[in-house]
Amino acid sequence: LDPTTAPTLTLTTCNPRFSAAQRLVVQATMVSTPAPIATVNHPIDGAEHVSQGTTHSQTQLAGQSGGSPWLAVGWGVAVAVVVGGIWFLLRRRQHWYGRLSVAAVGLIPVLALLFFFFQSLSPLLPASF
Question: How do residues 20-42 score in pLDDT, each as one tens digit?
């Protein structure tokens, strides 16, 4: 882990977690020059232009920001309405088989709405989530 003059990568891991009972160390040294980085520039007209060798940073690599918070709110309201309706129907049923049938039929739309809710919520979260 000391500084070197050559481009070197050192990876370390331990087993069990947070213990040094078993340790694995892997070292790698670059033996050739790296390939140029290809970047994609998006001009205003929408055409893509690929340039070689430029190293400016890419934005929005993970967690593609720019999602609409109102879309997530809309799906969240839809989930709340459907869950509330299922809860209301469950309370009105007297027998266990009536409650079971309402829960079984209501599970499918709730899961579908939750899928779309989390799909619209995901772009709003930071890339580390």
Answer: 788 888 988 888 887 787 776 65
